[in-house]
UniProtKB/TrEMBL annotation:
Entry annotated with the keyword Electron transport: no
Superkingdom in the source lineage: Bacteria
Protein name: DUF58 domain-containing protein
Keywords: Membrane, Transmembrane, Transmembrane helix
Name of a matching Pfam family: DUF58
Length: 439
């Protein structure tokens, strides 16, 4: 019994010893961490300050050459290989020679000027780059790079005398709708073998908006974009534009609406009653799901839909109408014509999206309850069933027009219930088709 009683005591002593050891180890780790954290942070700061600039100068080929030189020096010194020593010497000479090409300092004043930061597809985007030598001595020839999107343009700057200026003009291609990052201008020094490459930034970057193509509707929107008198409804109001009838005065009515001639004739106060009007408010539901556009040229058809939205939007802005544009990616800012075009330029389409045209129209109807006209902009792979389902979400009394875009097809007009469906193959046909829609 006594031996059995001693065993729990021994186990408890062992547990206390283990706990004490773990506590001491954790305290030691905490002390070590407190000592190493500042050292690690200092080492990271030094590497960022001194090693990072070097790493940006050395090209991948330079790193390979440097590693090869170190390896050959080690092998040659360890095994006495003359060939390895000769190769290490040549690699070292090549590295040292390339350093001379990247050394030096320029005192330039560089000015990057884009004539316009917003152009349409097909227009010329022209810019100029001016380089002035601000130093008191002549500058050596240098290469300037101008990043444009994913590419870069190169300009050879000749030797400049003190205070001399050199100007280069350039044109940026605008074949497709996009937002391009232009700049910053940077000077580049590198050796003939591109082992070392040193860049110096001289300007900031700019955003170049290449807006979608548009077409003028020339007043073709008249007929379905309501004027200021609005579209009469069956709801009655005490104050509006469209006169409806006379009724007896009730407590709280605005005395400005008393019809005094009828009051004198009947002997009772009579007031005017009006019909509520719906102010013109255009809503565009634009589908960015490429699965709803023709499979052969879905991106071209989507660009056509973007151009249709931009053309209708510009007409609405010109006529000072309220405008709302919604896609699967959310609403497009329409506070001004520039904001609208910039927003449409940033839109990107994709395949395999969960939401389709029906979801966009449902969201549009809920977000813009006061719309007088809703446009459905989609591709020809959107079925009649989907169009009908989307139309079911449109409130009663709101005009709905669906425009199905496919490059090259013959324009046509059809109806699905009260929904007008237009098929469009060219942007230039938009005005004619809209006039047919209200005929």
């Amino acid at each position: 019994m006594s031996r059995r009683a001693k065993r729990p005591a021994r186990n408890s002593k062992l547990n206390r010893g283990a706990e004490k050891s773990l506590t001491m180890a954790s305290e030691a780790m905490a002390v070590l961490r407190d000592y190493l954290d500042p050292a690690t942070a200092r080492a990271r700061e030094l590497s960022t300050r001194y090693l990072a600039p070097i790493a940006t100068v050395i090209s991948p080929l330079g790193f390979v050459l440097l590693g090869t030189a170190v390896l050959l020096w080690i092998l040659g010194a360890s095994f006495g290989w003359q060939e390895a020593l000769l190769g290490a010497f040549m690699a070292t000479v090549l590295l040292l020679a390339s350093v001379g090409f990247v050394l030096g300092r320029n005192d330039f004043s560089v000015d990057l000027d884009l004539h316009r930061t917003r152009v349409a597809v097909g227009d010329r985007a022209v810019g100029a780059m001016q380089v002035a030598n601000k130093a008191s001595r002549s500058s050596a020839p240098v290469m300037m790079e101008l990043p444009v999107g994913h590419g870069a343009a190169q300009f050879r700057i000749p030797r400049l005398e003190p205070q001399q200026t050199h100007e280069d003009l350039f044109t940026i291609p605008t074949q497709r709708r996009q937002v391009l990052d232009v700049g910053p201008v940077r000077s580049v020094r590198q050796d003939p073998f591109a082992i070392l490459r040193r860049q110096v930034k001289w300007t900031e970057s700019y955003e170049l908006f290449i807006h979608p193509r548009t077409t003028a509707l020339d007043g073709s929107s008249a007929g379905f974009i309501r004027d200021l008198e609005g579209m009469p409804t069956s709801d009655l109001s005490n104050s509006d534009v469209s006169f409806h009838a006379l009724r007896e005065y009730q407590s709280g009515d605005d005395r400005r609406h008393i019809h005094w001639k009828s009051t004198a004739r009947t002997g009772e106060l009579m007031v005017r009653q009006f019909e509520e009007t719906r102010r013109s408010h255009l809503a565009l539901s634009l589908s960015t799901n490429l699965d709803e556009y023709a499979e052969a040229h879905a991106e071209e058809d989507f660009e056509l839909a973007i151009s249709v939205a931009a053309s209708i939007g510009q007409q609405a802005v010109a006529e000072q109408r309220k405008l709302a544009i919604l896609t699967q990616q959310g609403p497009v800012r329409t506070g001004s014509g520039r904001q609208m075009m910039d927003g449409l330029t940033r839109i990107e389409a994709a395949t395999g999206q969960r939401e389709n045209l029906v979801d966009v129209v449902r969201h549009t109807a809920g977000t813009v309850p006061g719309a007088s006209v809703i446009f459905f902009l989609t591709g020809t792979r959107t079925s009649a069933k989907s169009l009908r389902e989307a139309w079911m979400h449109v409130p009663a009394g709101v005009r709905a027009i669906a425009i199905r875009c496919e490059t090259g097809i013959e324009p046509s007009r059809s109806n699905i219930g009260e929904l007008t469906v237009l098929s469009l193959g060219k942007l230039e046909e938009l005005g004619v088709m809209l006039r047919k829609a209200v005929a």
